[in-house]
Amino acid sequence: MLLIYPTIAYLLTLTMIVIHNRRMVTFQDQQQVQHEITPTSKKHQLWVQGLIFILLALHGVACYQDIFTPEGLVFGFAQALSLMAWVAITLYWIEAWFFTLQGMLPLVLGLATIFSFLPIVFSGAIISTKAVHSSGFKLHFITANIAYGIMFLAAIQAILMTMQDRSLRSKQQKDTATWMGIFVLGRRSRLLEQLPPLMVMERVMFNVMGIGFCLLTIAVFSGVFFSQSLFGRPLILDHKTIFSLLSWAMFGGLLYAHWRVGLRGAEASKWVLGSFSILLLAYIGSRFVLEVILHRL
Known about the structure:
Layout: H1 4-31, H2 42-67, E1 68-69, E2 72-75, H3 77-95, H4 105-121, E3 125-128, H5 135-169, H6 179-185, H7 198-231, H8 239-261, H9 265-293
Antiparallel strand pairs: 1-2, 2-3
Helix pairs in contact: 1-2, 1-4, 2-3, 3-4, 3-5, 3-9, 5-7, 5-9, 7-8, 8-9
């Protein structure tokens, strides 16, 4: 029953933000005020940050009780997506203290609403009874999922950067509209104006991705040790391992290219999205096929 609470809380928060933004647009149109659509006052930021913190606490408790049970470690693609969303929002909450990121919030909350609901429908399976009592495996497990969440946020930033880049290149910038802007603001979009400049977004994305790559490195290569100690079998080159190593190599190559030859902009965003897609296939994609298509837990 606890699992439904984060979904309801995310949905209510998203609805409040959408209604508030629409009302601000209507008011400013009537007053013909030419400034930021979403308030950026310190009081407003503190209110939003406090609300997100409550959401994180509620979602975190639900994730822990759903995954770490007395019977064993319960996990599946739905639990992975829910935990990934929690990590991404946690990182967003931290970033929002230093950058103006209101434009990201509706997309992040919308995805979190969907992902937090999935464990209610797909309960997952007991992965290992021994893992519940192993602090080493918990460390590996948590590190891997934090890496997933960080790369997920980097992918969201890459999507928004692509939208920013297209908006800047468009000759009819003021007349362009995005589905997200129309939904959130009720008008042709100035939602991207609620994001930092493109250069700042890019720097933040690569910093985030650098942290995620370090954690992903630990998760990928520590999996060899924990696989042997917990499951009694060495590393097997199955699709999960191959996709994990491939995504690790792609993220590493992207970071190296950015540092060495200055890869950036739209090309960098494409590589981020491609690398994250491969990472999703490594565990979440394979578990989705087993649980939903093949009905094998």
